[in-house]
């Protein structure tokens, strides 16, 4: 790969990093060709882009971003590196890795992930990443929490209104008798 080609790869990666707030760096160095093809197919089916790139090119592309990726340089960008990009969700790639590991034990390892510029380093973070809620899910939870007290008050007022009507009817019947 000549200098121009490397520059084009760095430019492409920098754009992808800037436009995708969620990316995972994995190590799939021990996988056979068949397993690698299976992983790529699974990524394609779930809308996740998977690329294998040299660590030095990843490092140079990360340097163009505003966020500090120094911890990645120190511990993640060593050995074989594949990058998974997903434009919409921070947990889809983690779930894909977990699903892939069910059938293919010890075949792929999470080296690190960036979720909205927050860094997660090491394979031990995989469970935490798979449990992350998306922004839409969090907004839904907040709306539900905000609606809960209002629904209780409205329900109380509505039931109280029917009770009040019943009491007034009983009182009016007593007066008439």
Automatic annotation (TrEMBL):
<comment type="function">
    <text>Forms part of the ribosomal stalk, playing a central role in the interaction of the ribosome with GTP-bound translation factors.</text>
</comment>
<comment type="similarity">
    <text>Belongs to the universal ribosomal protein uL10 family.</text>
</comment>
<keyword id="KW-0699">rRNA-binding</keyword>
<dbReference type="InterPro" id="IPR022973">
    <property type="entry name" value="Ribosomal_uL10_bac"/>
</dbReference>
<dbReference type="InterPro" id="IPR047865">
    <property type="entry name" value="Ribosomal_uL10_bac_type"/>
</dbReference>
<dbReference type="InterPro" id="IPR001790">
    <property type="entry name" value="Ribosomal_uL10"/>
</dbReference>
<comment type="subunit">
    <text>Part of the ribosomal stalk of the 50S ribosomal subunit. The N-terminus interacts with L11 and the large rRNA to form the base of the stalk. The C-terminus forms an elongated spine to which L12 dimers bind in a sequential fashion forming a multimeric L10(L12)X complex.</text>
</comment>
<dbReference type="GO" id="GO:1990904">
    <property type="term" value="C:ribonucleoprotein complex"/>
</dbReference>
<dbReference type="GO" id="GO:0005840">
    <property type="term" value="C:ribosome"/>
</dbReference>
<protein>
    <recommendedName>
        <fullName>Large ribosomal subunit protein uL10</fullName>
    </recommendedName>
</protein>
<keyword id="KW-0689">Ribosomal protein</keyword>
<dbReference type="GO" id="GO:0006412">
    <property type="term" value="P:translation"/>
</dbReference>
<keyword id="KW-0687">Ribonucleoprotein</keyword>
<dbReference type="Pfam" id="PF00466">
    <property type="entry name" value="Ribosomal_L10"/>
</dbReference>
<dbReference type="InterPro" id="IPR043141">
    <property type="entry name" value="Ribosomal_uL10-like_sf"/>
</dbReference>
<keyword id="KW-0694">RNA-binding</keyword>
<dbReference type="GO" id="GO:0070180">
    <property type="term" value="F:large ribosomal subunit rRNA binding"/>
</dbReference>
